[in-house]
Design goal:
Order of helices and strands: HEEEEEEEEEEHHHHHHEEE
Largest sheet: 4 strands, parallel
Shape: extended
Number of strands: 13
Strand content: 5-15%
Helix content: 25-40%
Oligomer: single chain
Strand order of the largest sheet: 1-4-7-10
Length: 288
Amino acid sequence: MNGSDSNSGASIGAPVKTLGKALELAEAQSPDYNIYVINTVTLSGSELQLSNGAYTGTIYRSKTFNGVLFNVPSTVTYVTIDGNKDDVPAADSLFNVIGGFLTISTNAVLQNNKIHYACRYVTESRHLKRFDQFTLEKYPDATCLSREIVLDWCSKQPHEAQENQCARASILRQFAKYLDTMGINAYILPKGYYPKASQYVPYIYSPEELVRFFAQTDQCHYSPECPYRHLIMPVFFRMIYQCGLRVSEARMLTVGDVDLSSGVLSIHHSNITRDCPSLGIPCRAVSG
């Protein structure tokens, strides 16, 4: 907390510097007196523990601050920390752990933290969710991430491109490395286990080729693995062409992003900047 421990801590204009002083002032008022953090606080020692449970208030992120609340040790006990997500769409986590991994122990509650993630990790989380369902269905009694499970999950699917297989394998490899650092037995797929797809060289279609291309998308057949593919693909490729979208931008559109009356798509996952702004893309009318 920016400020000085000689301050009263009674307002944002008179903040104290240390968590210890904040606790002292809060407990002098009431055991459930709340504390608001206005800047990142670095804590020493091996554990964030507030008076063995004597302090029963909540530590909140201030409305004026959207960063990490605490650089913390490895264990957190006897504390409730609230990210105040209703007032602060936070840019960072509640904690930055100083080495190792965070252990949430006795009577510790971490809540209401809304993090603005870079949109690049949405796909990875979805892959891991599908992997979770996969193991639940095929290996319900598994107690570790075995080689059999990894290779089964990473095997190339009939409808799958080589690039997508490599991406799935890479995500699971990173997950296995994480488990290994946690002391959990996990098979780590060797790097480069699956050959990469050849480097993509763009091809510029002629008008005649585009006509034939879209005619073929209209012939897309039903597939049980992707039951709506034959309906989606004709629209998907026309939209990419007419609106100048990246594949990822088109893939992450929702129904609410499409304004048919004004002919505008709202792009929330653009790669133009790191912060993934929302963009309004006017599209030419598609005939035929």
